[in-house]
């Protein structure tokens, strides 16, 4: 039986999203700062940016590699897939190009009815209008003995955490203060009491905190 | 010339204060959980609880020992001294008994006029009605070549941090989620940009993060 897993990048003040996007700079500078150490890893350079042999090794890369291991299905919110940024655009296929780095079935939680998207490399996007619990049941069935990853965004993750449905939460905390955005740590009082919590610091300065049960 | 320093215990969700105090349990359980690793150190056991030779050694104790080293004056808020909990009580002398663990002049920021309190062991409480800047100038003059510590509470610390008056901020982050209280990380966007940030994890699970300039 697989586990339900979450991996997120957070700022030290607990924000999982950034707010400095502008028409001129559609991703903003904060996102780059938030994910810099993660993007710099060999795993991400190879799997997402197509640069084999490039990138950092060590602790940050260990977590990045683990992110992709043993996952049989993913659940993400409509915002993470890009439906909020691209409303009513049937040609939108997500941020990741024709060959997304997932390689597994992905369930996108949305009120929008859209046909299933079969992408290259094994990624299939299913657009589902079910509750988080029903969606998880379907994802677990799809994943079989492998894990289900709750990919994001922050609000979807928080809903799964608050419902007690996550077995392993890993946050990579960048030592920066964003001051605004979506906070992960809200309404999660005593969340840690059902988990073992371990932490370690990478040479990049990223603080890796893992809740597992 | 000394530095201006802050040391605080924080929860992973960024709270520096706890909210579960009741008439039956006037300190609450959260505070004990927040400061458990700090209170357990040899330094705290010796200096605050009068138990020489007891307590943990290692990283947590290194930070606890550093807390007391090289400080020539302290600034604290009225709440930390206990004036909010004991209003209009001229006999109130703080939480720490006749021999407080400071051993230095302490400037208490308050609107209340109170006579200076000379305690045992070198602690003197001065009650000042000046701005945070004026109070810091006076504390620096008192400290001479030694450091000034901003002791707390969280609101006083935040005012000094936001004003750019702190040279070194150390937070000991306990891996617990309180869900409510006074947040340290508010309105401090990009605070880290004027500092070098280092982090390390103690065997207790406490994540020590230090901003220095």
From TrEMBL, chains A, B:
Q: Name one GO molecular function term.
A: 5-amino-6-(5-phosphoribosylamino)uracil reductase activity
SUPFAM superfamilies, sorted: Dihydrofolate reductase-like
Pfam families registered for this protein in UniProt: RibD_C
Task: Please list the GO biological process terms of this entry.
Answer: riboflavin biosynthetic process
InterPro entries for this protein: DHFR-like_dom_sf, RibDG_C, Riboflavin_Biosynth_HTPR
Question: What sequence ranges are listed for the domain Bacterial bifunctional deaminase-reductase C-terminal?
Answer: 4-187
Tell me the protein's name: Deaminase
Organism annotation: Glycomyces buryatensis
């Amino acid at each position: 039986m697989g586990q339900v897993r979450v991996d997120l990048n957070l700022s030290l003040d607990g924000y999982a999203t950034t707010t400095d996007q502008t028409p001129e700079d559609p991703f903003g500078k904060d996102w780059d700062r938030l994910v810099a150490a993660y993007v710099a890893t060999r795993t991400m350079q190879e799997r997402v940016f197509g640069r084999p042999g490039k990138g950092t090794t060590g602790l940050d890369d260990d977590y990045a590699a683990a992110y992709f291991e043993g996952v049989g299905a993913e659940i993400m919110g409509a915002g993470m897939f890009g439906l909020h940024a691209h409303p009513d655009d049937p040609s939108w296929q997500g941020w990741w190009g024709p060959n997304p780095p997932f390689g597994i079935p992905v369930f996108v939680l949305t009120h929008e009815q859209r046909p299933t998207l079969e992408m290259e490399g094994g990624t299939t996007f299913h657009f589902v209008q079910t509750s988080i619990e029903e969606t998880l049941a379907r994802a677990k069935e799809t994943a079989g003995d492998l894990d289900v990853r709750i990919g994001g965004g922050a609000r979807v993750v928080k809903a799964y955490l608050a419902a007690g449905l996550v077995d392993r939460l890993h946050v990579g905390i960048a030592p920066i203060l964003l001051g605004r955005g979506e906070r992960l740590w809200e309404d999660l009082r005593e969340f840690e009491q059902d988990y073992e919590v371990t932490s370690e610091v990478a040479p990049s300065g990223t603080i890796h905190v893992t809740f597992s049960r």
